Amino acid sequence: MAAVTTSSLSLGRVLLTGAAGGLGRELRSRLRARCSLLRVSDIAAMEPAAAGEEVVPAPLEDRAAVHALLRGIDAVVHLGGISTEHPFDAILQANIVGTYNLYEAARQHGVKRVVFASSNHVTGFYRQDEVIDPTMPVRPDSYYGVSKAFGENLSRFYFDRYGIETVCLRIGSSFPEPKDRRMLATWLSFDDLERLVVASLTAPVVGHSILYGMSDNRLTWWDNTPARHVGFRPEDSSEPFRAAKEAAQPALDPKDPVVLYQGGAYVRMGPFE
Hints:
Structural class: alpha/beta
Order of helices and strands: EHEEHEHEHEHHEHH
Number of domains: 1
Distance between the termini: 42 Å
CATH class: Alpha Beta
Low-confidence stretches: none
CATH architecture: 3-Layer(aba) Sandwich
CATH topology: Rossmann fold
Helix content: 25-40%
Radius of gyration: 18 Å
Strand order of the largest sheet: 3-2-1-4-5-6-7
Strand content: 5-15%
Number of helices: 8
């Protein structure tokens, strides 16, 4: 799918962490032309640097490596870390220690804006018959969700004390198309993902903002009204996929926690022993 053309503004020198992941690979190609420099990082294998890129592998738990990674950077799109549920010790290093290292390096190098990939699993224990907004208390459904709640709180601290602006993106389900009935509510198209990240990087003032990453789906559990100042306007919808996904899952048990709660399968993952 071709990249959307929502803005011709240069984003300056941008660091993209988690560049080897699914969303990282998608955003890398879309952000490259918008940046004077795009520095990409991960611990997994990445494609060689294209024109206007730097490829810098770095484990997020390595404080010195992350410090070097932030040198000369204007803004960060932080997708790095573990992106699914895992045992706590793994989550601790990649998502908690790693996120601290990134914000502390941003402070030391004068980086003034971060786009932080949070997750809908920060509020996964709200029910699917509720509509919530980013001002409501967190109810994480997993160690992964807890780590993203930590990241949101840490970014709030770094804004209040040091003035580093952050947009926390509680990403729903970003795939080429929804995979099941749940994703009819949570789906975020790749084009809308790009719109979301570009809006988060280019809005004049964001302070500390939290919003849900979702397309303009007819069925929704999330209200982004408190974050309209960021300027994200989704243009895609899961509706064209509805008939096929409902036919593939004709009957759901409303008493099943996976169906009852917004976090889906995450609400019953683990324990890890």
